[in-house]
Amino acid sequence: MVPVSVEIQRDPVPTEPRRSASRLVVGLGVAACLVAATALLVVWSLRQQGNTATDRRQSPLPKLSPEARALRDEAFAAAEQLVQRFPRDPDAYYSKAAVHRRFDDLEVAVACWHKCLECDPNFALAYYCLGWDALDHDQYDRAVDGSIAVS
């Protein structure tokens, strides 16, 4: 056999922006996990109580168990920390909006989607969510004509 030598090149030491991006990804992952765990607990809690509300406008949240409330508060805190650590990143505000939207705190969610657009006017997910919010509130003209981006 002929000996084969392989030279492995290592990546250069990551720069600060790369570290910030990886921290953001980790933060978004943690926030997403908290939201998912909380949503599962909320669904489980509501099924235990026999709540079968299907109308999205009818909020079942007053019947949350203490465990579900604690997880909800933890998700709110994680989302707020994400925004504080990355105040110019639209993904951080989108994550916070997703947490608040999940728990029917629409005023905060809408404010966060607008903040996404302040950070990046081309952030498509914010337009999408603002459009759905306008449709949920029967504001069809705003949903279609693009005035949803104006607060």
Q: Top keywords for this entry?
A:
single chain; 151 residues; mainly alpha; Serine Threonine Protein Phosphatase 5, Tetratricopeptide repeat; 6 helices
Could you outline the blueprint of secondary structure elements for this entry?
Blueprint: H1 16-48, H2 66-85, H3 90-102, H4 106-119, H5 124-136, H6 140-145
Summarize the structure.
This protein is 66% helix and 0% strand. The chain is an all-alpha fold.
Walk me through this protein's architecture.
This protein has one domain: Alpha Horseshoe (Serine Threonine Protein Phosphatase 5, Tetratricopeptide repeat), CATH 1.25.40. The chain has helices at 16-48, 66-85, 90-102, 106-119, 124-136, 140-145. The protein is 66% helix and 0% strand. The protein is mainly α and 151 residues long.
Instruction: Quote the CATH topology.
Output: Serine Threonine Protein Phosphatase 5, Tetratricopeptide repeat
Largest beta sheet, briefly?
none
Protein structure class: mainly alpha
Which residues form runs of ≥5 with pLDDT under 50?
Answer: 11-16, 53-58
Name of the CATH class: Mainly Alpha
- What Rg do the Cα atoms give? 20 Å
The residue fraction in helices comes out at 55-70%
> How many angstroms separate the termini?
72 Å
CATH-scheme architecture: Alpha Horseshoe
Number of strands: 0
> What characteristic shape results from the CA principal axes?
globular
Order of helices and strands: HHHHHH
Portion in beta strands: under 5%
User: CATH superfamily assignment?
Assistant: Tetratricopeptide repeat domain
* Count of distinct structural domains: 1
Report the mean per-residue pLDDT as an integer. 74
Q: Figure out the total of helices.
A: 6
